[in-house]
Queue: 2 jobs
Job 1
Amino acid sequence: MLGLGTWAGLKHDMSKILPSEWIPYKECFYDDTGKKRYLETDEFLDAWFLHQKRNKHHWQYWLLTLDRGDVQAVKMPERYMIEMVADWIGAGIAITGKMEVWEWYKANRNNMTLHPETRNDVEMLLHWAKKVHDKKEKGCYTWEKFTEKSKK
């Protein structure tokens, strides 16, 4: 039987293989010869919107647009918040080859609408990931242990 983490890893971003996402993504990031590019189109923006609303590990999934036009952030469940941060770490390493998620987050945090508790948890998780990566936090390699220590 697959554990929750294994199943989340297997289904992570599977919606990208759906034609409604795959084709606009391909056309945005690659030309007809396979050369990399970035060409943002309305079709790509529609696909990106669908992707965010199909995948709970995107912070945009947790935005509620009220009838009066206000946008309100809903608190993310811990499992999706952890998956989101893991996604940021993995994407950053894939793009730059380095663990620079904290720096990326600081540069982009003001562009994200997060529930205050989610923001606090994200920042705590990012601090933990940095400490583990920098090996400054000896013997504390699980999020659960870190959050227990942080609450004391």
Job 2
Amino acid sequence: MTWTGPGFVDSHCHLLRVSAGAPAPWGPSNDPEAIATWHHRVLDRWSTPMDEPDQPATVDDRLRGALERGLTRARELGLVEVTEAGMHDWAHHEALLGLRARGPLPVRVRLLVASGAADLGRMDRARTGDPWLEIVGVKFYADGWLGPRTCAVSQPFEDEPDDAGVLFLDAETLARRLDPYAEAGWTVATHAIGDRAIEAVLDAYEKVWGRDCAEAAPRIEHAQVLRPDLVRRMAELGVVACIQPGFAVSDLASARAGLGERAEDAYRWDLLLDAGVRVISGSDFPIEPLAPLAGLEKLAAGAGSAPTLPVDQALAVMTDEAAGTVVLSDDPHGVAEDELSSIEVEDTLPAG
């Protein structure tokens, strides 16, 4: 017996970049030390990961085919909409326009332009309201990652007591840089994992929008190392949290080693929801699998002491009825939490 429900959306992935074959900027290894070295190198040149240029791609049938295959795979996995969380190369947008001219895309595509590639004039000209392909805003990058110990934390890491991470953008700099995009009505999303970075981003958002922050609904991407006061501020300001369902499981050992007792306040999606924060989700593919049912299982079943959500709440965080519907081989509510990834996708119907 099949089950039809709101379609899965991935509000934070790097599907276009991966499909196009762009290499990881830190090199072929995903070793935390290599990533940390790259983060510090970026900081040393007063840049951020969202301001680093990519090797430009050529817009041709090869690129269009690669992007179409990536989007088709996303649909097969159960997604009806994806958001590219930092488009560094406008060639990807041009290639997607070519695909769109032929008809509907396999899934709806939303683009957050990387801050280094963002151009207000070009973005305004590209704003069409097309439900299949739309630029929605700009993405900034405030700090590093937890695993390489480069996220900006308010107290040093337990296993690296002389290190409190990397802060690429302080509140004043971020506010100055995002202000033109806020004035133009674009969505602003900022990568912030550590509590020191989250606090800086909230300060910047409050400085730019003030009491109008909730209406603008700026986003914080990841929001992993939380504190109760930051959760309250996010709720009061109306800031959206874009979380990654698999991170609380994948990062569990590293979070405990790096944060000690502070790990108890990390990845607390339940506390964000209880406080009234709007929570959306994305895989951060290729860091985590693109398959939404794999993320749903981790979010609902967890592992060890990883925070979890009830299936109803997890589905609400991961789906959007306005973006389309998904047909599954079984009702997620009737399947054991640790078996959710075994449900098969029968069909996806993106809203056009």
